[in-house]
């Protein structure tokens, strides 16, 4: 009996360690295109079908049926239409990575000036079909309390659903996971996705911590400029989202181009100011007075001679 218990405990730790190793390995590889995880022949046991395959611009099926945290039957279409959406796939009884992802997401959202439910929505969906709305409600209460902004309950929803809806959604966004019956846990990678208001996959962000600057620019870009300001538009011009890394990087040529334009405008402005000062009535009068003084000095010199 003790041997069985010890074996099951060891399996849980091996699965947790393997999942963490998979996430770290994928991040360390720079998140190249294709399945974002180590090759199948070097993955730990139980992780052969685990990874993230980018499906950029893929339309998710908005007619999929789920239940919200209150037990109400909903479709994904209920949360799309006007605002970009941050989607994260977890399961609420996850002993390690899922809580880290949610904690990292909350920490980043607290820094953003955009408010959940105002400029964008958040969907947290369980990929465990056995989980219930009660678990979703408890998780929602926990993370909304940590987020701490009014009105967020209307914009951040925690869903559960049947196997067919979960499979269709995870396949649409390329999220691959695997159930381990021995430990009763899921092996999975860690990422969040930003979706456009009409439900297309716009961007992926990997790991358990997410740069607030990247999230802000991602939301603005996914909204087609409907949120944000002029400064954000300039930043989007200078920074480009790299699907391979899941981050925004500077586009040097565009920065140099803007710098050159700014330099030309500055020099042109200085020349215009100097020209106006030189042609002003005060400037002309001073020149005439100075020439008059010179004439007087010359006349006086002639009289003296």
Structure description:
The structure is a single chain. The protein has 305 residues and is of the alpha+beta class. It has helices at 2-28, 97-111, 133-147, 163-173, 212-222, 230-238, 252-278, 281-304, and strands at 51-52, 65-67, 73-75, 85-90, 121-126, 156-159, 175-180, 185-188, 191-195, 201-206, 239-242, 247-250. Strands 6-5-4-9-10 form a five-stranded mixed β-sheet, sandwiched between helices. Helix 2 (97-111) links the parallel strand 4 and strand 5. Helix 2 packs parallel to helix 3 (133-147). The chain is elongated, with a radius of gyration of 30 Å. Mean pLDDT is 76; it is low at 2-35, 228-232, 251-260 and 300-305.
Please give the share of residues in helix.
Answer: 40-55%
How much β-strand is present in the residues? 15-25%
The assigned structural class equals alpha+beta
Q: Can you tell me the number of structural domains?
A: 2
Strand order of the largest sheet: 6-5-4-9-10
CATH class of the largest domain: Alpha Beta
């Amino acid at each position: 009996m003790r041997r069985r218990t010890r074996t099951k405990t060891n399996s849980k730790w091996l699965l947790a360690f393997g999942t963490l190793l998979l996430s770290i390995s994928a991040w360390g590889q720079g998140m190249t295109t294709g399945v974002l995880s180590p090759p199948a022949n070097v993955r730990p046991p139980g992780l052969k079908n685990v990874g993230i395959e980018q499906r950029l611009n893929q339309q998710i099926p908005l007619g999929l049926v789920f239940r919200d945290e209150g037990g109400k039957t909903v479709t994904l279409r209920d949360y799309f239409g006007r605002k970009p959406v941050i989607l994260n796939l977890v399961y609420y009884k996850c002993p390690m990575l899922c809580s880290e992802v949610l904690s990292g997401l909350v920490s980043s959202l607290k820094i953003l000036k955009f408010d959940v439910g105002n400029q964008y929505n958040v969907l947290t969906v369980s990929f465990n079909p056995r989980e219930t709305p009660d678990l979703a409600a408890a998780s929602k209460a926990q993370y909304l309390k940590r987020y701490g902004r009014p009105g967020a309950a209307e914009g951040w929803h925690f869903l559960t659903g049947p196997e067919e809806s979960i499979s269709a959604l995870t396949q649409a966004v390329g999220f691959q996971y695997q159930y381990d019956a021995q430990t009763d846990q899921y092996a999975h990678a860690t990422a969040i996705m930003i979706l456009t208001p009409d439900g297309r996959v716009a961007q992926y962000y990997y790991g358990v911590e997410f740069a607030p600057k990247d999230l802000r620019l991602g939301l603005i870009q996914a909204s087609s400029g409907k949120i944000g300001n002029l400064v954000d538009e300039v930043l989007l011009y200078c920074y480009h989202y790299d699907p391979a890394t899941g981050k925004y990087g500077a586009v040097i040529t565009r920065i140099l181009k803007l710098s050159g334009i700014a330099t030309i405008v500055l020099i042109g402005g200085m020349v215009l100011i100097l020209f106006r000062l030189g042609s002003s009535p005060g400037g002309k009068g001073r020149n005439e007075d100075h020439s008059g003084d010179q004439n007087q000095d010359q006349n006086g010199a002639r009289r003296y001679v």
